C-alpha cells in the first residue's frame, strides 16, 4: 500500500503547472500522475515520495488535497 494525493484543480490556465511547480520547488518527487477533468474542474492523483509534506505544501497555497491509501503495483517495461 502507498499513499496517494488527490488534488482538486479548478479548470483554469496554469493550475496544474502551479501544482507541479510547488512540488518541485519543495524537492518532492512525483512517481505517478493521473489527471481526470471536466469542463469546470479536474482531479490530479499523485504518488510522490513524501505525501504528507506535499499535502502541507499544496494546502498552504490554497489547494484542496486529500491523502488516501491505495494499492500500487510496479510493472517493469
- Backbone shape: globular
Query: CATH class, please?
Result: Alpha Beta
Unreliably modeled segments: none
The CATH homologous superfamily is called: VC0802-like
Count the beta strands.
4
- In DSSP terms (H or I, runs of 4 or more residues), the helix count works out at 2
Structural class: alpha+beta
CATH architecture descriptor: 2-Layer Sandwich
CATH topology: VC0802-like
Strand order of the largest sheet: 2-3-1-4
Largest sheet: 4 strands, antiparallel
Query: Roughly how many Å is the radius of gyration?
Result: 12 Å
Question: What string, H for helix and E for strand, traces the elements in order?
Answer: EHEEHE
**Distance between the ends:** 21 Å
The structural domain count equals 1
Query: Quick check: average pLDDT?
Result: 95
Describe this structure in words.
The structure is a single chain. This protein has one domain (2-70): VC0802-like (2-Layer Sandwich), CATH 3.30.2130. The chain is of the alpha+beta class. The protein has a four-stranded antiparallel β-sheet with strand order 2-3-1-4, with helices on one face. The mean pLDDT is 95. It is built from two helices and four strands. It is globular, with a radius of gyration of 12 Å.
